[in-house]
Amino acid sequence: MFLRIFASAALVAVQGPAVAESRPGSASNLDCAVIYTLVGQGAASDEDRGHLFYLAAYFIGLHEAETTSDIDDAFVDRYTNMTSDEVEREGPLCKARADGFEARMDVLVKRLGANAG
Q1: How is residue 60 annotated by DSSP?
Q2: Residues 27-48: tens digit of each pLDDT
Q3: Sign of CA dihedral 27, 29, 34, 39
Q4: CA distance to 23, 57, 111, per residue, from 107 (Å)
Q5: Can you give the pTM of this predicted structure?
């Protein structure tokens, strides 16, 4: 039950108003991976869940590249100990970073489409 309430709070936090894309240290890659995992668990549809887990994977990749270690233990520890206040504070920062990534991917896909013809 707590996880459902927590995931609902995370969803609200991540869907909150976007702020300018933050520097990577403003909301840690690990925190963003955990938040998008929590949000994904509470997603209403398979499509939404897949999209949110895709973003979690993006932040997991950034974390592993930054730390040069697997995320496993750090993720479990952070997932277990993250508070709803942290989700509310970090969620909008993670959303801004995810929005920036998605915008860059949209541009890339359009460029690739233009070059395909």
Answers
A1: H
A2: 799 999 999 999 999 999 999 9
A3: positive
A4: 21, 20, 6
A5: 0.75
